[in-house]
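Long-time lurker, first post. I've been practising inverse folding by hand and with some scripts of my own, and I keep getting stuck on stretches where the structure tokens seem ambiguous. Below is the full token string for one chain I'm working on. Before anyone asks, I'm not after the true native sequence, just a reasonable design that respects the backbone. If someone could post their per-position residues I'd love to compare against what I wrote down in my notebook.
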């Protein structure tokens, strides 16, 4: 895919196990492997709590024929790739579709969120 080097945003391409899905909006990802929470006591700040966190890739896609909402929910152990206008690509393996699959009937869209042990950015 060739990219306009001056463009920062505007297009996105999402694939799940090589299947290209039609992206509408709401793309994003997280490569974080942990999150930090402050630990407070009655006398003030005590330190930090580090909690493991899964990486994620998300997008709102068009509800296309040929894939049922149940099939999205059953997607597990899949490879997911999100390619953005600025040339960045987020990829994850052994990802699973998480959360409820709600179809917006007016726009025929579905919010998808895939989580997995690691998401990398290139």
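-- Answer (accepted) --
I ran through it position by position. Result:
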């Amino acid at each position: 895919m060739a990219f306009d080097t001056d463009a920062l945003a505007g297009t996105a391409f999402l694939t799940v196990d090589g299947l290209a899905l039609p992206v509408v909006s709401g793309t994003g990802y997280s490569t974080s492997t942990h999150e930090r929470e402050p630990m407070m006591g009655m006398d003030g700040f005590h330190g930090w709590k580090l909690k493991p966190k899964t990486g994620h890739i998300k997008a709102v896609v068009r509800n296309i024929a040929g894939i049922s909402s149940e099939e999205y929910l059953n997607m597990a152990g899949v490879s997911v790739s999100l390619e953005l206008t600025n040339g960045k690509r987020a990829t994850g393996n052994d990802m699973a579709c998480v959360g409820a699959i709600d179809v917006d009937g007016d726009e025929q869209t579905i919010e998808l969120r895939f989580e997995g042990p690691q998401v990398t950015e290139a």
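A couple of notes from the structure itself: The longest strand covers residues 44-52. The radius of gyration is 17 Å. Happy to go over any region you disagree with.
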